[in-house]
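Appendix C: a fully annotated inverse folding record. The material below is reproduced so that readers can follow the format used throughout the book. The structure is listed first as tokens, followed by the designed sequence.
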């Protein structure tokens, strides 16, 4: 089956739009950025913007997903197992991503950011679990990936809200329970 290649000009233009959006977000809150601002910064017309993105919310979602993927750098985890080092790396990437966004995005977009983080984490955890445990446990691994993604996201929110510790110190306290489970004594 032939694989279609994306025109490099399309990739460059899409990156130019995202970069322009990120540049603008350094000086303005998301709610104050318009398509006109982005097209002026990128030196493109509105039709080009709408060729690549449905609207500014679509751009926000795709730009944040891409930035998070860069932070997570999935190549780093390609050969890793789910162990303490991997959990620490993932947690640090998520907390770095959240910290970098804290001054850029209006509080009203926290749900969008949370969903993006959880979705990306779910994909990453699922890949790692399937690699480690095998495809025969697909249903259980999917559920586990969902639980881990929500758990890491929730822990990152708690760290951002209340912690004096570094992200590494914060997550290392919980890793033994994540790795080995909670054993209840009767």
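Designed amino acids, in order:
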């Amino acid at each position: 089956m032939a694989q279609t290649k994306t025109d490099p000009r399309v990739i460059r233009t899409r990156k130019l739009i995202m970069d322009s959006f990120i540049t603008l977000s350094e000086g303005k809150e998301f709610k104050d950025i318009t398509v006109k601002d982005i097209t002026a910064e990128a030196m493109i017309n509105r039709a080009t913007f709408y060729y690549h993105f449905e609207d500014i919310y679509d751009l926000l979602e795709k730009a944040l997903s891409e930035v998070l993927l860069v932070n997570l750098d999935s190549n780093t985890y390609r050969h890793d197992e789910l162990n303490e080092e991997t959990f620490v790396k993932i947690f640090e990437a998520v907390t770095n991503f959240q910290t970098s966004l804290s001054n850029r995005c209006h509080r009203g977009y926290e749900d969008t950011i949370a969903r993006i983080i959880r979705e990306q984490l779910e994909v990453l955890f699922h890949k790692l679990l399937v690699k480690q445990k095998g495809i025969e446990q697909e249903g259980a691994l999917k559920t586990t990936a969902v639980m881990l993604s929500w758990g890491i996201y929730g822990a990152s929110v708690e760290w951002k809200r209340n912690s004096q510790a570094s992200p590494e110190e914060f997550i290392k306290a919980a890793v033994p329970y994540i790795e080995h489970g909670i054993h209840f004594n009767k």
